[in-house]
């Protein structure tokens, strides 16, 4: 099997070499797999200029996040070739780089790789080599209705305590008038509800694994964090929180139904209600990991025949010039530039003028800590950069959703989650 | 007698009313989908615009500009049409043989064919990706999609055709044999005209199943052969508010098949017997 | 002539049989092989497991792992629950509606067209439409209706005498259909909506072939409409019911999109979905689950085909 694959690989590489020799001067095509997010969809239009300039035709495949991941994984694991550029996140970048699934990125000097925010660079690298370039990045923060807190006579401050957040949510909670104190994610999935719950757990001093990579969901810290989360949402959250993620809450928030919302900083650019104020994520004594760090980045799968063109495109799409191109584009403007990737973006005066959330976002990204610590012996804030994490995270997330909807107690849910995580880690050969 | 006629008069009114009410309930979700597709994403979640709003085509223009709707739609038409034709080409002779020249094993073969339809696609997804990409090199081609759509529907096609053919008196076919008509002639000149209604119903049902197949079509294509199912996969949960966008894409994806179904409704009602009518 | 009688049918059947055999055997044998080896797409600790090599032979290890994995038994049980519920609902509703529209009345053609429309809708569209626009507890019609009722009741509380009565009314909470306890019902509801029209189609066809003279005789004998329905119509529909049950079982055993879209497997799973969860990395476990799913499908197939298929062959 292996040798057959190698022969096929060698053969195809020969063909590639031959065809590229002849292909000079011909129009190239790149197939780009993207998640269906606003910045990525806008890129399709902005990149028309790129096609005009270079003659490289771009084919966009936009898929739902989970399906994209599944498709890209099975393509990459079977030697790739379907996509020239893939949209991946911070969870995949370092491990896929380590597995040799994606190519290291070395850009020219004018790309100014040092301008990329350090947290982003660190999160997308493996052993100091950058494997994916951030298209946009985000952390998480509190977005609350200042008008409602003022009316209720409460305040929310940066790095607040969860007790105070709960008190503020209680003060704003007025379901008879359609206002719910706190809207938080609960939808099962490691990238949805679990991402938020992990930051809560981190802020209580919990971690996913101990130094032997044994899951630690049975610790009192996890219990305290999940109990607080479940009580907060059940007392002061909207109905159906176990089905809510970013989109659902965004709709609620813009309808004026939420007092406070803790979620991706990118949400700030979608908010249309008045009186929104921002604060750094709350914690219960441990600020490290209380706010997450994520990037939608672009990488080149190893199987592609057009690696050079793909890298050239990524260099353009993640550059300072791209930010300028979006800002000056008649359809988009400065309010729609991708953020969270480069320090220089935040220094642009036109951007500062339209983005009231810029300072809070930058502070949140800067304080996010993906690196390993004694408490948390793995890379990643709201995820763990190991190949098994999506499975572990989703299994635990389903259990927490069960606790949230009252089908299980927090103890039962965490015990079931612990058992599932333990089985997966044992199966993967960690111990 | 008076009570009976009163009863029947009452039922003459109530009967259609009940039928209409149930029909409208069943159709309501589709109506709501189409209705929502003319709202902006922001309006679609606002209760004040629940019934009265300024209609917009924004979602449809957005869809054709950003997602190349027509490429997906054309792929759906091509793959569904050819898969249906291919399935009939393979299915008609097989069903003919089973209906008119049954052997001891015919029943078992038919049962076995149907049982292949029960195999869960997810169980063989990874091997299929592996085979079609690394060994056959037909991943993301129309050929592959047509082949797979044909194969997953073939058991139902053969079974449906078999049940229609069985209702044709054997003597008619035998008479053809006596006259020295070739097998091909039998199929073409006697069987197909006689079973035309059944074949048309089978084709219709197969076409509907092909059009609506999502598991394989999404997972065995990337761009060249991607069908409307892929378009739906890309739009079922995009970032931000999306009810309007999603409704427009969904409406555009189901409209061709729903309209086709409406036109062929009589054919479906008449033909979907599966041998149940004697 | 006699040899022609045997070989020709065989030749005519060959393409179908061979195609289906390949379609079934090749991927399935690979699945079977993968189910006996350690095979993961990515593992940083044990990179040797990432190639499907015979040296990773594991015997029944994957099967053991899967049998003890979270939700395995739940998935089987839940799968049977969903399919059975859908079958009961569609058959009962389908019978009722088919009888209803079998009579002539003004606009029957349009009623039929409206009724069968859900059957043409793509499963993924069905699921996103129901879970977002209809069942969402705040933004969907479900939530809006409950909010509407609450605000009406709230308005009535201020009335002089009646207000006292309405003050006793509780504020209604909308049901969330993405919750662990309810997600299976959401899937049952949307699939039943889509497949009831299929049952109606088949029952309608059969009703049209019902022997009218028998019915007339029964009416003259003074049989009530209900006893006619039970004694004449239902026996006549036994075979169509069997067909509806069989075809639907074939399709609903492999529900996938609806489960994913409604609750991502929270409180609602079947074996295909469990396989999907494994496929993201652990191909060995996914394959072992796949083999279990094949066994389950075959058990049901034998049972169903025995029950239904035999009678259809005669």
TrEMBL record, chain A:
One Pfam family from the record: SBP_bac_1
InterPro entries, alphabetized: Bact_solute-bd_prot1, SBP
Domain of life: Bacteria
CDD domains noted in UniProt: PBP2_TMBP_like (cd13585)
Signal peptide annotation: 1-23
Keyword Signal: yes
Alphabetically ordered keywords of this record: Signal
Main localization (coarse): periplasm
Protein localization: Periplasm
GO cellular component: periplasmic space
Family: Belongs to the bacterial solute-binding protein 1 family.
Protein's UniProt name: Maltose ABC transporter periplasmic protein
The organism of origin for this protein: Planktotalea frisia
Higher taxonomy: Bacteria, Pseudomonadati, Pseudomonadota, Alphaproteobacteria, Rhodobacterales
Automatic annotation (TrEMBL), chain B:
Transmembrane segment boundaries: 12-35, 72-97, 109-131, 143-165, 190-209, 242-264
GO aspect biological process, one term: transmembrane transport
Family (UniProt): Belongs to the binding-protein-dependent transport system permease family.
Designated gene of the protein: sugB_2
GO annotations of cellular component type: plasma membrane
Listed name of the protein: Trehalose transport system permease protein SugB
Domain ABC transmembrane type-1 residues, every copy: 73-264
Keyword flag Transferase: no
InterPro entries: BP-dep_ABC_trans_perm (IPR050901), MetI-like (IPR000515), MetI-like_sf (IPR035906)
PANTHER family xref list: INNER MEMBRANE ABC TRANSPORTER PERMEASE PROTEIN YCJP (PTHR32243:SF18), MALTOSE TRANSPORT SYSTEM PERMEASE-RELATED (PTHR32243)
Annotated membrane topology: Multi-pass membrane protein
Keywords noted in UniProt: Cell membrane, Membrane, Transmembrane, Transmembrane helix, Transport
Organism: Planktotalea frisia
Domain of life (superkingdom): Bacteria
Intracellular or extracellular location(s): Cell membrane
Main localization (coarse): membrane
Entry-linked Pfam families: BPD_transp_1 (PF00528)
Organism phylogeny: Bacteria, Pseudomonadati, Pseudomonadota, Alphaproteobacteria, Rhodobacterales
From TrEMBL, chain C:
Keyword Membrane among UniProt keywords: yes
Record membrane topology: Multi-pass membrane protein
CDD domains (UniProt xref): TM_PBP2 (cd06261)
Transmembrane segments: 12-36, 80-101, 113-135, 184-204, 283-305
InterPro entries for the chain: ABC_transporter_permease (IPR051393), MetI-like (IPR000515), MetI-like_sf (IPR035906)
Keyword hit for Membrane: yes
Domain of life assignment: Bacteria
Domain ABC transmembrane type-1: 76-304
Keywords: Cell membrane, Membrane, Transmembrane, Transmembrane helix, Transport
Gene3D superfamilies membership: MetI-like (1.10.3720.10)
Compartment annotation: Cell membrane
Biological process annotations from GO: transmembrane transport
GO CC, alphabetical: plasma membrane
Family: Belongs to the binding-protein-dependent transport system permease family.
PANTHER family the UniProt entry points to: ABC TRANSPORTER PERMEASE PROTEIN (PTHR30193:SF45)
Name of the protein in question: Inner membrane ABC transporter permease protein YcjO
Protein encoded by which gene: ycjO
């Amino acid at each position: 099997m292996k040798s057959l694959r190698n022969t096929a690989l060698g053969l195809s590489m020969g063909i590639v070499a031959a065809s590229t020799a002849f292909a000079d001067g011909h129009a190239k095509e790149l197939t780009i797999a993207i998640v269906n997010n606003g910045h990525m969809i806008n890129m399709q239009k902005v990149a028309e200029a790129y096609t005009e300039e270079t003659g490289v035709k771009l084919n966009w495949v936009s898929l739902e996040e989970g399906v994209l991941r599944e498709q890209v994984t099975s393509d990459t694991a079977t030697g790739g070739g379907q996509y020239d550029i893939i949209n991946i996140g911070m969870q995949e970048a370092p491990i896929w780089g380590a597995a040799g699934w994606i190519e290291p990125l070395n850009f020219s000097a004018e790309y100014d790789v040092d301008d990329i925010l350090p947290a982003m660079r660190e999160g997308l690298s493996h052993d100091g080599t950058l494997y994916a370039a951030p298209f946009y990045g985000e952390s998480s923060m509190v977005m609350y209705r200042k008008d409602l807190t003022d009316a209720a006579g409460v305040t929310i401050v940066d790095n607040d305590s969860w007790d105070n957040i709960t008190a503020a949510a209680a003060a704003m909670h007025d379901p008879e008038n359609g206002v719910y104190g706190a809207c938080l994610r609960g939808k099962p999935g490691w990238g949805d509800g679990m991402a938020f719950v992990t930051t809560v757990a981190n802020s209580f001093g919990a971690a996913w694994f101990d130094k032997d990579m044994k899951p630690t969901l049975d610790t009192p810290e996890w219990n305290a964090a999940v109990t607080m989360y479940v009580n907060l949402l059940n007392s002061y959250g909207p109905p159906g929180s176990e089905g809510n993620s970013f989109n659902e809450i965004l709709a609620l928030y813009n309808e004026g139904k939420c007092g406070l919302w803790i979620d991706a900083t990118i949400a700030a650019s979608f908010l249309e209600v008045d009186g929104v104020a921002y604060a750094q994520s709350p914690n219960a004594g441990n600020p490290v990991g209380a706010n997450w760090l994520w990037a939608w980045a672009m990488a080149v799968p190893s199987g592609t025949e057009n690696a050079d063109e793909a890298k050239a495109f990524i260099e353009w799409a993640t550059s300072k010039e791209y930010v300028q191109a979006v800002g000056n584009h008649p359809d988009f403007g400065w309010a729609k530039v991708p953020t969270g990737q480069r320090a220089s973006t935040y220094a642009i005066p036109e951007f500062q003028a339209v983005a009231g959330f810029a300072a809070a976002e930058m502070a949140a990204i800067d304080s996010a800590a993906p690196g390993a610590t004694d408490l948390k012996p793995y890379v990643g804030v709201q995820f763990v950069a190991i190949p098994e994490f999506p499975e572990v995270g989703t299994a635990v997330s389903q259990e927490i959703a069960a606790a949230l909807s009252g089908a299980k107690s927090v103890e039962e849910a965490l015990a079931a989650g612990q058992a599932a995580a333990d089985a997966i880690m044992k199966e993967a050969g960690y111990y | 007698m008076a009570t009976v006629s009163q009863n029947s008069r009452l039922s003459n009114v109530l009967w259609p009313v009940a039928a209409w009410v149930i029909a409208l309930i069943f159709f309501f979700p589709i109506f709501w989908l189409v209705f929502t597709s003319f709202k902006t994403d922001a309006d679609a979640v606002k209760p004040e615009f629940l019934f009265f709003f300024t209609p917009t085509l924004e979602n449809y223009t957005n869809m054709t500009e950003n997602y190349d709707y027509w490429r997906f739609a054309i792929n759906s038409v091509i793959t569904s049409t050819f898969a249906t034709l291919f399935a009939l080409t393979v299915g008609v002779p097989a069903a003919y043989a089973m209906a008119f020249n049954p052997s001891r094993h015919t029943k078992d073969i038919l049962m076995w064919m149907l049982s292949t339809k029960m195999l869960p696609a997810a169980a063989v997804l990874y091997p299929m990706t592996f085979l079609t990409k690394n060994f056959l090199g037909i991943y993301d081609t129309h050929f592959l999609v047509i082949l797979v759509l044909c194969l997953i529907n073939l058991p139902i096609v053969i079974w449906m055709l078999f049940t229609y053919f069985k209702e044709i008196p054997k003597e008619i076919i035998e008479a053809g044999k006596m006259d020295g008509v070739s097998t091909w002639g039998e199929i073409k000149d006697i069987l197909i005209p006689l079973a035309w209604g059944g074949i048309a119903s089978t084709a219709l049902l197969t076409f509907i199943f092909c059009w609506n197949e999502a598991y394989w079509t999404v997972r065995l294509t990337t761009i060249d052969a991607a069908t409307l199912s892929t378009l739906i996969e890309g739009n079922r949960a995009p970032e931000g508010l999306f009810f309007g966008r999603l409704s427009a894409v969904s409406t555009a994806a189901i409209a061709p098949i729903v309209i086709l179904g409406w036109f062929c409704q009589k054919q479906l009602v008449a033909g979907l017997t599966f041998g149940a009518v004697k | 002539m006699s040899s022609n009688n045997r070989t020709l049918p065989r030749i005519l059947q060959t393409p179908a049989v061979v195609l289906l055999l390949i379609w079934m055997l090749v991927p399935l044998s690979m699945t079977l092989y993968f189910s006996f080896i350690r095979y993961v797409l990515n593992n940083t600790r044990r990179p040797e497991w990432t190639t499907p090599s015979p040296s990773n032979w594991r015997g029944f290890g994957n099967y053991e792992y899967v049998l003890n994995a979270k939700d395995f038994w739940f998935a089987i049980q839940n799968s049977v629950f969903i399919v059975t519920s859908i079958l009961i609902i569609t058959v009962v509703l389908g019978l009722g509606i088919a009888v209803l529209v079998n009579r002539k009345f003004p606009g029957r053609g349009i009623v039929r067209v409206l009724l069968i429309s859900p059957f043409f809708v793509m499963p993924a569209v069905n699921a996103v439409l129901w879970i977002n626009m209809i069942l969402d507890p705040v933004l969907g019609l479900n939530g809006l209706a409950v909010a509407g009722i609450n605000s009406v009741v709230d308005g009535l509380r201020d009335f002089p005498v009646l207000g006292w009565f309405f003050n006793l009314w509780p504020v209604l909470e909308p049901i969330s259909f993405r919750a662990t306890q309810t997600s299976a019902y959401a899937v049952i509801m949307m699939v039943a909506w889509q497949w009831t029209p299929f049952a109606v189609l088949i029952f309608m066809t059969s009703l049209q072939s019902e022997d009218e003279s028998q019915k007339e005789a029964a009416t003259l004998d003074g049989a009530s409409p209900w006893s006619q329905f039970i004694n004449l119509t239902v026996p006549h529909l036994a075979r169509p019911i069997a067909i509806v049950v069989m075809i639907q079982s074939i399709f609903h055993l492999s529900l996938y999109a609806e489960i994913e879209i409604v609750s991502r497997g929270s409180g609602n799973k079947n074996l295909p979905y469990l396989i999907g969860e494994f496929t993201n990395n652990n191909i060995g476990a996914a394959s072992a689950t796949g083999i279990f799913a094949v066994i389950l499908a075959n058990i049901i197939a034998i049972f169903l085909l025995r029950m239904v298929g035999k009678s259809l062959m005669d």
